[in-house]
């Protein structure tokens, strides 16, 4: 009897069932969290490696959970994308970030730009650019303070011409456009020069360990040069150590966003994070005087 029970168990394939059920539960809870505005944005500083100056803040979504603490986006964004909830979620992020940026401007805080992540599904809405324009208007935020990050995935499953049209509409509005996780997806080298991006974010995989592996460093340097030669602002994602950070100075990245400087933190902790980073910089002597 025991063996039979085991066989039945296998036949119904519970792991799959469990997964579907837990995804459905997640979607229900996520929808409720969105409706009650429980989702929060944390902000990760982007700094100029040469002098530690703040040049931008990336808004990253967090889902506070009673028992589990903050749930990271990797656990719920894919489900939101599957179910289409990402459209409402994306609008919530757009509004929250614009509101916050407008408040920072009022307060005289010079944050450079606020960056938000845009899902390919949002991009597929033909009125996406109008929505962005309207939201900027609603909060009185000049377009140049907002940066939209998209990954190469935006070109998967969507006609290239449609993506290009929306990108150029957004460019006309005056928002900044950034290509996120560069090098990690399917290569965009052949269209990079035709896209109206101002910024390239080099995927964390390229800086990771590049200070101790010369070939990785060469690859990292080549990508920085590629971006710069196309006139793009180049941001290195994910420097965690002093050695990795030093590479962003040596190879003249325009910006660095990584744990070495700061993780994403609630808005009220940004200033103190930056202060302690600058203290570390001063003490380490990594800063390149000739670049200041
Ligand atoms: P992303 O846009 O590439 O964001 C950078 C991710 O790298 C963030 O993870 C950040 O915390 C992490 N990171 C930054 N520096 C370091 C580092 O030095 N070391 C390591 N190990 N990680 C670092 P997070 O917040 O978990 O977000 C993961 C992804 O979820 C984001 O990747 C983005 O694709 C997506 N995401 C986050 N918020 C949103 C959102 O509001 N909308 C959409 N559509 N996607 C979002
Ligand atoms: Mg991003
Ligand atoms: Mg990224
Ligand atoms: Mg990513």
TrEMBL record:
Residues 23-278 form the EAL domain. GO terms for biological process: signal transduction. It comes from the Bacteria. GO terms for cellular component: membrane. GO terms for molecular function: cyclic-guanylate-specific phosphodiesterase activity. Keywords: Hydrolase, Membrane, Transmembrane, Transmembrane helix. The keyword Plastid does not apply. This is Cyclic di-GMP phosphodiesterase Gmr. It comes from Roseibium aggregatum. The gene is gmr_4.
